[in-house]
Amino acid sequence: MPTDMPLTEILIFAAGVAAAGVVSGLLAGIFGIGGGAVLVPVFYQAMGPLGIDEAVRMHVAVGSSLALIVPTSLRSFQGHHARGAVDMELLRSFLVPVPAGVVVATLIAASISSEGLRLIFALIALAVGLRLAFNRESWRLGNTIPGNPWRAVIGFLIGLFSTLMGIGGGVMNNTFMSLYGRQMHQAVATSSGVGVLIAIPGTIGYVWAGWGDPLLPVASTGYVNWIAVGLIFPITVLVTPFGVRIAHAMKRRHLEIAFGSFLLFVSARFFLSLYG
């Protein structure tokens, strides 16, 4: 990271990253996610003025987001598990397929371009944003979560796409469970555990995928930048429990609409960066 940046730009960057940490920590508790849907676009935009090469900027944003999801997901899972809200049977059935999807995603990340990674993020954010913004309680595929092999396939896809996006899988697992009649609170709680299954192997994978890249910014191990992680880590750990309390105390429809709108905005920004 360049050392000749004006102090005001450094302070603005730090303030923006800190604000993203607060939002991502709250989202981790409220939605059972690691906040990556917020962190990745913020990291990507913030690293531009810092002179970080476009070829690795999206990869570093995704890898650093996954590293931050480790503590937020662990903290969120601990809070929800203490309340007895986690579907441990479903989580145990994901122990192999979700990390398997993560491994495949890191192999893809090792060879895909920054443009390709942004396109994947934009497409998935568009689909998830539309689903959240226009969600209806009546949208159901059934009343019982399917068993294997379909459950394993779904777990694999959750791990795959979440790792490519740098998110904890909460939004996708929430959608999966709610489409089969599960209460949102249980879906949120279980998603925090899914985030742990994604974030730990995903972080290791992005470290491996970017190892030795000469374009990496200072203080990076592979595609994980420890300056970004160090700024946000303490904030998210402190804020996540408040998100858990909010999740168990309020209606979620307005939050779904707001989060869906945010994802649609981010998707549009990435599409413009690719084709604008």
Automatic annotation (TrEMBL):
GO annotations of cellular component type: plasma membrane
InterPro entries: TM_pro_TauE-like
Topological category with respect to the lipid bilayer: Multi-pass membrane protein
Keyword Transmembrane carried by entry: yes
Pfam families per the UniProt record, alphabetical: TauE
Record's keyword annotation contains Nucleus: no
Assigned keywords, A-Z: Cell membrane, Membrane, Transmembrane, Transmembrane helix
Localization terms from the record: Cell membrane; Membrane
Transmembrane stretches, start-end: 12-44, 56-74, 94-110, 117-134, 154-176, 188-211, 223-244, 256-275
Protein family (similarity comment): Belongs to the 4-toluene sulfonate uptake permease (TSUP) (TC 2.A.102) family.
Protein name: Probable membrane transporter protein
